[in-house]
User: What shape does this take?
Amino acid sequence: MRVWFLVGGITAAAAAVVAMQGSTAGFVHSMGTAQERGASASGPAPAETAAAAPAARLSTGKLAAFVYNPSPEPVPEFPFFDAEKHTQTIASHKGKVVLLNLWATWCAPCREEMPALDRLQKDLGSDKFEVVAVSVDKNGFDAARKFLEGIDVKSLRYYSDPTGLARAQLRAIGMPTTLLVDAEGREIGRLMGPAEWDSPDAKRLIEAALE
Assistant: This one.
């Protein structure tokens, strides 16, 4: 009797192992299929990838930190002010490609890159392109204006946002923050931190946006 019980127990155990293996294999297969479906659903569409790839190749050299959006996104319509304290928005510049730069006098990297932005405006500024450098100093116009005059900025127009709305609306978590905006007022991409904006790499980026 003990032999039959032993044989029966071994047979039952073997059957259980086979059943578990079949169940595990099915689970692994279903997980693999789900992961493939998830990767397909979460990944960019082939058309978006193909469209973004040529542009992304421009994020090299001095502009390696520039991050392209998968597709252009509308820029929020926050107000800022020109030198005459007239209200401006991104829509005020529609029809131009805009390099929108947020800076402040207390931000050392912002101060360092300002002459390069001025030279970029001098070299490429036109009725189709403008560097819009917006001061976010909360103490108003005077400090920023005095700083720009002190470094002999000649080509940049003066813009200011003492309210801080620009930083909040653009989700600018650091300074400087620079957005490349197309002629329809949509963000092509952005760079967090300073850059050599008068470099050949930067000019290729701008010229590609103008095409």
User: Anything to note?
Assistant: The chain has a mean pLDDT of 78.
